[in-house]
């Protein structure tokens, strides 16, 4: 199979690029995949396709740009030129831009593939029915939220024209099937990026203890409560704690982290890493004592939670939305806090940094949950889906031929 993947890809700063990296890493090791064609966004640096593991050929076609209105044309041309046997779209609703028209045009691509009869799967990381438009940085205006809701419903209908739409949570399957009356939605879990052959060292030897958060910040992910919560824990426990804020601004809130850094420059042992290169992610997690999710809402299955689990880390999470569902569905554990409550967040952090037995219990449970769905298993599930699509296509052609013959 010659598999095309439409996605952002490292060193891109566009969302979901890290997920694509790990998909490619594992797809290329499958015997049934003869070539991977990456249809990616344009970046200044070269695409990171150097892997230790052997695998199939990888061809990179940089054919789209964030917020370009021409993406649908340029990606279609790239598909025509490369002639893939199947196409996988690694998407969320703002994948192709934070300008609404540019984002919407890009989401028409699965329909284009459908019309061209190219087997295609859309991996949809979030659904608008479960996104708080205000918290996520779209709009707080109630009228505009209704308009965006209508647009979102229309775009979802178009996305659902794909052969198969894959989501990472059963709740999303249920919502889409019920609202849109479709049967082509499937569940494939998010999966865990890296799982070491050796169990992680659950002990903490680094000092100061690192309290880390990881992501794109400024909308529903705010770091001010975390900084203030850790200051409270320092006062109540006397522990040597460092706050590590790893990541960048959310595209909707440029300059957010720079403002936070200036506002809290008086706080000791506060470190902003900026963008974390793929090769540095492992070190970041391994050196952390606790991983915190300072969220006020959620927009999908959390890649950071799966990463934390794969490194055997205890986590502090808000008791809301999709994070709470992941705990229930996939077996993750954490110390929970009330969103927008600094006292509650500080208490949750304090429990984990002062109770080593409890921290170890959560860390080991998360490692067990993470190892249940390695990316090797996840990519196998996608290949199975593509085979099912191809079989259906052959079956339909056979039926048509038999009908013509009988006539």
Radius of gyration: 22 Å
Question: How many helix segments?
Answer: 14
- Which sequence of strands runs across the widest sheet? 3-2-1-4-5-6-7
CATH fold assignment of the largest domain: Rossmann fold
CATH superfamily placement of the largest domain: Glycogen Phosphorylase B
> Mean of the pLDDT scores?
88
As a percent range, the share of strand residues is 15-25%
Spatial shape: globular
Helix content: 40-55%
**Record field, number of beta strands:** 13
- The CATH architecture of the largest domain comes to 3-Layer(aba) Sandwich
Can you tell me the number of structural domains?
A: 2
Largest sheet: 7 strands, parallel
Poorly predicted ranges: 397-407
Q: Assign the structural class, choosing from mainly alpha, mainly beta, alpha/beta, alpha+beta, or little secondary structure.
A: alpha/beta
Helix and strand succession? EHEEHEHHEHEHEEHEHEHEHEHEHHH
Distance between the termini: 35 Å
Indicate the CATH class of the largest domain: Alpha Beta
Account of the protein in words:
With 407 residues, the protein is an alpha/beta fold. It folds into two domains: 2-191 and 374-403, Glycogen Phosphorylase B (Rossmann fold, 3-Layer(aba) Sandwich), CATH 3.40.50.2000; 209-370, Glycogen Phosphorylase B (Rossmann fold, 3-Layer(aba) Sandwich). 43% of the residues lie in helices and 18% in strands. It has 14 helices and 13 strands. The strands form two sheets. A seven-stranded parallel β-sheet has the order 3-2-1-4-5-6-7, with helices on both faces. β11, α10 (303-310) and β12 form a beta-alpha-beta unit. α7 (224-237) crosses α12 (342-354) and α10 (303-310) packs across α13. The longest helix has 32 residues, at 375-406. It starts with a strand and ends with a helix. Residues 397-407 have low confidence and may be disordered.
